[in-house]
Amino acid sequence: MSGPDLATRPARSAPPGAPRRPAALTPVALAARSAELRTSGALLLALLVTIAGLHVILDGVAWWFELALLCMVLLASAAIVRRLLPAASTVAGATDFRRILPPVVSAVVMLLAVTVVFVPSTAILGIIPTGASWTAFQQLIEAGNFSIARQSLPATAVPSIMFLLCLGVGALTIVADVLANTLRAPALAGAPLLVLLAVPSAVSIDITDPIVFVLAALAYLLLLRASAARRQTALTIGLAATVVVGALVAPLLLPEVSPAQNTNGTGFSSGVNPVLSLGQNLRQDVERTVLGYSTESGTAQYLRLVSLQDFSGSDWAPDAFRQRSANTTDAIGAPPGLSPDVSTTEDQVFVDVGSLTSPWLPLPYPTSSIGGLDGNWFWDSDGLAVKSPDRDSSYETYRATSLVIAPTPAQLASAGTTVPAGFERFLALPAGMPKVIADTANEVAGGATSNYEKALLLQGFFRDGDFQYSETAPVDQGYDGTGMTVIAAFLKAKEGYCIHFASAMAVMARSLAIPSRIAVGFLPGAELPERQNGRTAFTVTTHDLHAWPELYFEGIGWTRFEPTVGRGEVPAYADIASPDVPTPVNTATPAPSASATARPSSSAAPLAPEQTAQASPAAARAAAVGTWLWLVLALVVVVALGLVPAAFRAMVRRRRLRSLAAGGATALTAWHEMFDTATDLGIDIPETATPRDAAEMFALSIGGASRDPIDRVRAAVESESYGQARSTVLTGSASLANDLRRVIGDLRSSADRGRRLRAVLVPASAWDRIRRAARIGD
Questions:
Q1: Cα–Cα distance, 12 to 18 (Å, whole number)
Q2: CA 114 – CA 127 distance, rounded (Å)
Q3: What is the b/e burial string over 123-148, where b = at least 16 CB atoms within 10 angstroms of the residue's CB?
Q4: Cα separation of 161 and 147, whole Å?
Q5: How is residue 583 annotated by DSSP?
Q6: Is 518 helix (H, G, I), strand (E, B) or coil?
Q7: What is the pLDDT of residue 573?
Q8: What tens digit of pLDDT does each residue of 521-571 get?
């Protein structure tokens, strides 16, 4: 008989109660640990190279060192855990821990790292996150999305953007480590690397760096070489080519990110919300209808989405939305600070939203109740913005009951300079603000006796001075945005669009101790000639997107002003043409220069159509980054889910081989693995075949390779099946592990490259198990 001696004695075990001595590491275990370290080092190199590819969309180099340090810490933490745990082949039961603990520890380390770096003030001892830390994380995410969309390329890696980068790169690092070290499939670790490589090329193929692609390919091949003992030559070449070619070609095949074209005018998704660039939407070449509304009073209304009150110095951002189940839209809270002495009238506004992909609802301010909405919508007690946790405002039709507030100039003046308790945060300004901002504010309005007069002077400075409305000048001259340096540049250039005027006036108001914030929403739009159900109707387009400052006055509340030249309508209480509006006087500047003279504003500036121009490629790419980040995240999720069967199949095979090598499995274990391997490779061997018939089919499938390993496994199966109880363990099962490895290798060698790749990525045997489990469940 050609097979080995297959004794049927059970495996000997240690006497009961005898102490177990720690087994020394075998040469195989030592080699495995060495391979893990080499793989981790090669993976770190590959990550550092692919991260460097982000230099085409990020300014400076400091961000690279921070991300590189994060990758080192995460990979090192996983490597240390593996080093401390016993090798998989020496201690029974340790394998599961060596698979599960490293990624878990890495995830915990990443959480602690981002807590220490970004929100230490909210954590216990500066490192252990609390509920406040999670709220701060949410604020960072919202601010990061806003900053990404607002900046032109290359973008500045402000803290909020760095937070998003740390989350994304950290998650990809952990996934890559699991694939390369835990699942021992370094070829599959190319998927996370591909995600990183695809980010710049997804924004635009014009800004990709071919040198990074070449270096990444070399680093990837080095990663595969670090696990050369495994038979992955064909898979290595195939996936290496896929990573490089896919990252280069995919952007050419994917559609560009641009407004959807629809001949009937109903399919445009404007994507307007506070985390997208106002300028990019205003500069769209084609004007498109966003929504329509009608009012019972016949009065046009500003429609507000949300207010931005947190000024970090680099940008404005909304507060984290505090959703409370009691805050339904049936009854929205009263506007803060409004006294019953102020004249108000109720109006009914009927809104029909088009394809506006905003989580916030466009509403007049303040709104007291809303009817007719689909889904769950809640209002925030701070800004009274209305938002849904699970849908956007697209195609919503609703009725909003609102208040039209009409304070008199005397009431605004009587507010004096009072700042109520709790409103200090609306005065917050960052350290290091350019001196020109406060100096200009003081020169324009510092000597006025009331906050109302200061607001009139600031509005007049912008609206009736030397400033001009331009949607392209900030992009062309490199000061597009809302940060401190942008405001300083805007005050010097005197050209910009609504966000620059609103941001500058809000910051200057804060420097004069006036609480302020920015509102983002829409201008009233154009009145339609036809009435709707007896009501005056209006239409709002993408070119009506607008931002304006809101200043707080005790007894009146948040009050709108309109500093943007040639845009919007100046409220009656802020219009010098109104009979009761006083002429403000700034006693701090007896003889100001002509350019700084503050003249009270007038409503003579018409609601002119804004200039339209094609956005620069850099600005267009900046607006697309936020969208692509979510697409990349979705791609990661899809890839991870798609690899679940492959990971499951690899774990089953390793468990069987390990059990055979340890002498703890029967020959049927090897037989089942042979059948599953054949199924994965598309080789049809009926399960009802006798061992000898099946062995003949296996021998035919391996071509000219030796059939001795097949015969030895078959002989062991027959011996177990017909000679003794099936649960008996053979002392020769360790040798069957080597025979099984040879059979698997011969079967794979006889298959073409396509079938080998499918067997790894889409193993049919794993799917068969899932289908059988589903049938049993039925």
A1: 14
A2: 9
A3: beeeeebeeebeebbebbbbbbbbbb
A4: 7
A5: -
A6: strand
A7: 92
A8: 999 999 988 888 889 999 998 888 899 999 999 999 999 999 999 888 899
